[in-house]
Each structure stands twice: as structure tokens, then as C-alpha cells.
Amino acid sequence: xxxxxxxxxxxxxxxxxxxxxxxxxxxxxxxxxxxxxxxxxxxxxxxxxxxxxxxxxxxxxxxxxxxxxxxxxxxxxxxxxxxxxxxxxxxxxxxxxxxxxxxxxxxxxxxxxxxxxxxxxxxxxxxxxxxxxxxxxxxxxxxx
Length: 144
What we know:
By secondary structure, the protein is mostly helical. The protein contains six helices and no strands. It is globular, with a radius of gyration of 27 Å.
């Protein structure tokens, strides 16, 4: 419950309440003494630190997130929790200046190689064929 409340208060940008909830969860996890996954709840010291990383990111505290992640062994956690860990560490902070970050290149409209015709049964070929036939002159009526 405290972990969920930490996420909620972090998204409300309430640092004090967020840290209080994380601290309470840390105390409970220390009493438990190990990472457990009873009934797929995945709770323990490591999972609390994953939440601490996540709320630090939500609050824009990248340094705190990275410091918390130092020497954290996540190998005992589920793939889902490990993925959250990697996503949180890869995510830009909400207040980060991304103006110097180059934009990714645009996706090409046609995925086929240049100078190589698309296969006739591909969606690209069907699309090109249907648009070509729409651009063609309509048939004329020869009964004039």
C-alpha cells in the first residue's frame, strides 16, 4: 500500500509524502528481511528500492534514482519488475532539457529496398495498385 501511495504522491509532486511512504515501505521490507513473491505480490527490500527509483524519476531526481540503483541486484525479481527498473533508468526526467537531443530520423514511407519492386501480394503493392487505378482516367462510355 505504501508503494502505491508513494507513486501517487510522486505524481502529485509531493516529495515529503512520497519519501515518507518509501521510508515506511523500507522499514516493513527490512522486517521481512528478504525478497518474496507470495501470491505474486513481489515485495521485499529490492522491490522497495525499485519503487524508490521510480518515484525519484517521477520527481525529476535523476541523481537520486541513479544513486539508489548503484549495486542493486535485481536478478531475483520477475522479468516484469526488471523491465520497470531498466525503463525507469532509461527514462528522461520530466524536467530534463531535451532541446539538444537530436530527433530520431523519420521513417521512410516505403519499407522496400530502393530499385527493388515490392512483391505483388504485399500490402504496399496492393496499396500502390489501388491508388494507381484511382488516378487513371475513368473508362469512357463508347455509346456516344
